[in-house]
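Re: weekly structure request thread

Next one in the queue (299 aa):
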Amino acid sequence: MIASQPYIGRFAPSPSGELHFGSLIAALGSYLQARAQRGIWRVRIEDIDPPREVPGAANTILRQLEQYGLHWDGEVLWQSQRHEAYRAALAYLHQHGKSYYCTCTRSRIQQIGGYYDGHCRTLGHGPANAAVRLFQQQPVLHFHDLLRGEVEANAALAREDFIIHRRDGLFAYNLAVVVDDHFQGVTEIVRGADLIEPTVRQMALYHQFGWPVPRYLHLPLARNADGNKLSKQNHAPALPSGDPRPIIINALHFLNQRVTKEWQDLSLDDLLARAVAHWRPEDIPVDIPTNPAFSNAPL
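Done, posted below.
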């Protein structure tokens, strides 16, 4: 008998600010999904975009996860220490004719409708003042989401030769996340619905590398009173530093999970253990309308 593949999940925040209620939803959902399957839960700090990073935010995020009882397995992976792996991935794609240099400006692409048209694909540009684009030969037009079922992609986005190495020398998110998820052996990705759109690009990269594609589950987004998702850009309040249990309870309600009435008598570890035991991802709502009780949950 062949042993089934062990479950490996992950939470991968960017250090652009402290965790807020919306990011707690992603962290808690991925944690409970992993623990309910007796799997491994990893943490990765996606610090590959220095202009967007806040000094000290990465260590604050790790402290917040520990305060909220979300303890990870193994060492934290830092993307800032993975440049050699990304360069190797870029070299592989270039050597196999799966990428090319592009000097097109953002304004030119906006003028032609917002999606790149492959203009530089056969021009043979060198690396000087150029981005690297994937030669999109295996577009993914739809995928199965464990919560949402079949998800249809924007066909223009799915077929686009997207950037995998930026003109400014930074590695693109889609490349780094695929290389690292494969390296960490991630079998299932549980994350917020704001990342549904790039999923097909990431799946296309898996196909180009010949790597197995993980499963995906995209959680509903917490929104503020204006209907916008809670985010660092929208100045969502950071998770409070006091008793984390009421916030965990709010997050479980948000995910439509069973909550014991006696939760105030439980320790944080016992509360999370019960959440794992009663975890039912099939009960998670696909989308949640604006609700002040959730948008103000950390206060």
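The domain at 83-175 is CATH 3.40.50.620 (Rossmann fold). The chain has a mean pLDDT of 92.
Next request, please.
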